[in-house]
Amino acid sequence: MEAYVQALNYAIPFFVALILIEILVAARMKADVIRSMDTLASLSSGLSNVIKDVLGLTVIIVSYAWLVDKIALFHIKSTVLVYVFAFIGKDFAGYWVHRIAHQVNYFWNHHIVHHSSEEFNLGCALRQSISEWFSITFVFLIPIALLGVPAEVVAIISPLHLFAQYWYHTRLIGRMGFLEKIIVTPSHHRVHHAINKIYLDKNLSQIFIIWDKLFGTFQEELDDEPPVYGVKRPVRTWNPFIINFIHLRQLIVDAWRTSSYLDKLLIWFKPTGWRPADVVDKYPLKVINDVHDYDKYYPKLSFAIQTWSWVQYMFIFLMTMFFFNTIAEVETLWIFVYGAYLFLCICSMTMLMDRSIYAWLVEVVKSAVGLGLILYAGDWFGLGNYWSNGIYLVAGYFVLSAAIVTYFHFSEINKSNTQLQVA
């Protein structure tokens, strides 16, 4: 875990720096590819994902180390060629896991958050799942396990394989010549994130585009069909916790409502989006039919609320990085308390971004809980060991944030909602 945290200390600033570069380049090119609250929602989703990872909330059904130990037919040394082979094997597994996530109702819930942005930029690459409690990747790693690829090799190439999927989430890079035939490029991945009928569930490869061409899921980006991004049933929220479980909730509701006991079972394994016939008739859902004629989700927020949302994110980010780098000094119970509290902070912030009428109440609760933790422990999870006056800054932030969000509620959000009801 400490090694993972140290990797985050380098990876997170690197990802954020690339996003800032994309913003500057987009402004120079006068390209409309960034929306403030959408990007903030993506950053918040990325933060919730790494918090979940640090808390270890994913169950490893079968680890690769166990797999290779039990089924390997050969024992090979860690050479350069073995690393290359392992990378290709990992990419093969990634293609099939990704394909299943797109084609099976239950597994789509693990992946919907990544496609939930109605923009396509480096920020949306950070929208990673917190609802994936277990992984089936090990099934598709069986081929390299049989050949005896060492576990330490897979442990090294796995994060590299993940990070290598970040750069191509952009609209600022056009086609890349001969590379289009070899690797996944921004053009390929724009197709993958699009909801145009011709683009749906295409280009599922992660590094090498060859898998799509071999297995019939490749689609070139067409000049006369500009990609439109998002999901067919729009999530219409910035809250990563709602987005991560919105599809699962719908599956549960549909399974409950259908009168067919067979459908209650089959709904989980049917193609993504499938619903029982009796439920579709009685409880229709809004689906985008014309991708070129619908309004993107973007609640009208004042400049003040947008600015405060970014300030909130910076405080949450700093508290998160402090948590990551002092986790070894915190008792196990309090690790989960801190993690849960950070989730509450992210939820509260994004509720304000959604203009929820309950945002102020959740913010007050969040601040009260934070102050309660300080009073109980006389410190903020060991912050006093590094900065004696830091506790006063944290306490002051809690008081200020509750006051500011409450002000926004009564001066702007509640007032505008009342005016809409009257109109």
Quick overview:
With 423 residues, the protein is an all-alpha fold.
Q: How would you characterize this protein structure?
A:
The protein is an all-alpha fold and 423 residues long. It is built from 17 helices and no strands. Helix 4 (80-103) packs across helix 8 (151-163).
List the helices and strands and how they pair.
Blueprint: H1 2-29, H2 36-55, H3 64-71, H4 80-103, H5 105-115, H6 137-140, H7 142-146, H8 151-163, H9 186-193, H10 210-215, H11 240-257, H12 261-266, H13 277-282, H14 303-326, H15 332-353, H16 359-377, H17 390-422
Number of strands: 0
Order of helices and strands: HHHHHHHHHHHHHHHHH
Oligomer: single chain
**Structural category:** mainly alpha
Distance between the termini: 55 Å
Largest sheet: none
> What share of residues is helical?
55-70%
Q: Evaluate the radius of gyration.
A: 23 Å
Helix segment tally: 17
Uncertain regions: pLDDT < 50 for 5+ in a row?
419-423
* Shape, per Cα inertia axes: globular
Strand content: under 5%
Task: Give average pLDDT, whole number.
Answer: 92
List keywords for this structure.
423 residues, mainly alpha, 60% helix, 0% strand
